[in-house]
């Protein structure tokens, strides 16, 4: 089959986008061997594919069994989320229009995953149960991408199945009719002087009607106004009514006109009445993301070069100001050399996928690798993370953008490394988000706590991209290369502009008449990078240990420095020790590993192991405060000592009742040598003085001696929690999974209270627990 947009582009741009098109759409993925030693056998792939299907069934059936016809599943409560019956969550609830959102959003996923019986049944349910005229205020953007897009994608699939002559023979374009009705119900939003749409509309009463309870807003986000063209144009072309495409196009035109002419960037929020920018920060994530995506894809779907030219202009600006590989940082649109914040949001994870479409693989690989490192550290992409890859906002609502980019990079490079990345997404979802009634969003990636929500995009997008990643083309019920994904991953046919042309002209060139430009415009990774078959790996390697996760310990944490040793060789060593730096003579390191000693070691050269004992917690990342509560008589819970946590050992926030035990001093008190009082320590909580060796080393020794917990006491005289912020103890750079007892830290003043209590009463029982669960507080 001809892919018209590709041949069209060949004429227009001399092959740049042909490259991307061919990479993404038409090149069969060669069986390339892994460049990271990560090749995956067909059996392994198919096992993961089955796993994804099983997970989809679990999520979908949970929604159907416990929630349908409600908009969303509440996976912790095992019931549906009905707007008005649950506490109002603010803007998030504007997606919910009492129109069985999740089922509509999932329809074309059912087809792609070959669940054709379920699809047929679901379409009948939608036709029977769904009303689109509820008296409810919904987000225009969300309703467009999820519901209008969902109906159109499903209509396209229904039509394909019907054409094949077996299924859906009863289908009479009912989904398209519903899409058209919904389109009309969204149109009142465009009743502004600028042409930019209101952010919300009442499905029954529109915007101006006094009963509408909306229409007072003055602002909308750039993505909200600029993410309509694909669905609206498809609706126009499929229904024959041009009004939808006209409105969406107008909104795109306004955004383009309002770009900052110096930088060619747009802001995040715009006034819908006068077109002034309300928020002038500019990035590729939240608030703007899919505006750029839709410029590129509007060109692909509709063949209108204007969109491509605009995209290219913005793209150059993004690469000039926002892209700081591997980072993508928001800047001020008027002063774009200034970063406006030091954190990134998870929505920008779609951008490498868009860069693949643009044919710009290098920065796509770099940013994707950075994102992968973040997921390795936190299991999922937190909603926002700092430039140092620490959590800025810990929520993770099961967003699909990282899976999306992973799929596109795999399509483009054929590098099985991306299958491994996909596998890690699958495993983490199962390990950290799966619950008996579906999959639950993660409230905070640091604690792993769940939230009672499973957004519809999880079924609409996540499962499509994961399933596609592990499927061969021949295993799919449709030729995926004939479709473009909307921002919600709904499938629209790239043949749209030629089979159902627009009534609008505005300079669009007619489709090309070349026969098959593909055959010579289909570069594989090898054609593109002939002398460098390990292209993607070479790029990734530079970013492998951004976050420190997975770093080979010996190689990176041990560095050689020259110490001016005196005859005894003790002074600098002791000095460094007092600073918390442990030293290992190179002779020991080398003989342990190879048996040969390099020259330098005999001259007193040490390998210096620099291991921070405490983590630097960024301002906004809170350390969960713990307490040591003295509960035995005469204290009876009245003496409470503020304590700091450790990043390793038992997580006290997950122990409902904390950990209780009698305290006992370790001998030696620093616990840096063999423990001498193991019998006394058995079953007790050990007290150990900070210093001389690492916390992890002390913890291991005391755990082995039978202690059920450790309280570390600061060795710096006079320190107290009143004067010094709490910090988290970290491990010693080695894996710490073996340490399973709880660990807390007391500054010396608090420690002195505890040791004084022990001295006076001998038997002192304490409870270690998070401060917020302090006993008897209420
Ligand atoms: C989806 O609804 C769409 O991808 C949208 O463009 C923004 N992201 C959410 C999922 O994260």
Describe the model.
With 778 residues, the chain is α+β, with helices and mostly antiparallel strands. It is built from 27 helices and 32 strands. The strands form twelve sheets. It has a seven-stranded mixed beta sheet with strand order 26-25-32-27-28-29-31, with helices on both faces. Strands 5-6-7 form a three-stranded antiparallel beta sheet. Strands 12-13-14 form a three-stranded antiparallel beta sheet, with no helix packed on it. Helix 4 (101-112) packs antiparallel against helix 5, helix 15 packs antiparallel against helix 16 and helix 15 packs parallel to helix 17. The termini are far apart. The longest helix is centred in the N-terminal third of the chain and has 26 residues, at 42-67. The protein is elongated. The active site is at 142 (proton donor), 289, 383 (proton donor), 401. Belongs to the glycosyl hydrolase 47 family. Its EC number is 3.2.1.-. This is alpha-1,2-Mannosidase. Residues 663-754 form the PA domain.
Percent range for β-strand residues: 5-15%
Task: Please give the share of residues in helix.
Answer: 25-40%
Number of helices: 27
Question: What is the tally of beta strands?
Answer: 32
Mean pLDDT: 86
Helix/strand-derived category reads alpha+beta
Task: Catalogue the ligands.
Answer: 1-deoxymannojirimycin
Largest sheet data: 7 strands, mixed
Task: Write out the strand line-up for the largest beta sheet, numbering strands in chain order.
Answer: 26-25-32-27-28-29-31
Radius of gyration: 30 Å
Contiguous uncertain segments of 5+ residues: 1-34, 505-528, 553-570, 586-604
Overall shape: elongated
In angstroms, what separates the terminal alpha carbons? 71 Å
Subcellular location: Endoplasmic reticulum
Pathway: Protein modification; protein glycosylation
Organism: Danio rerio
Cofactor: Ca(2+)
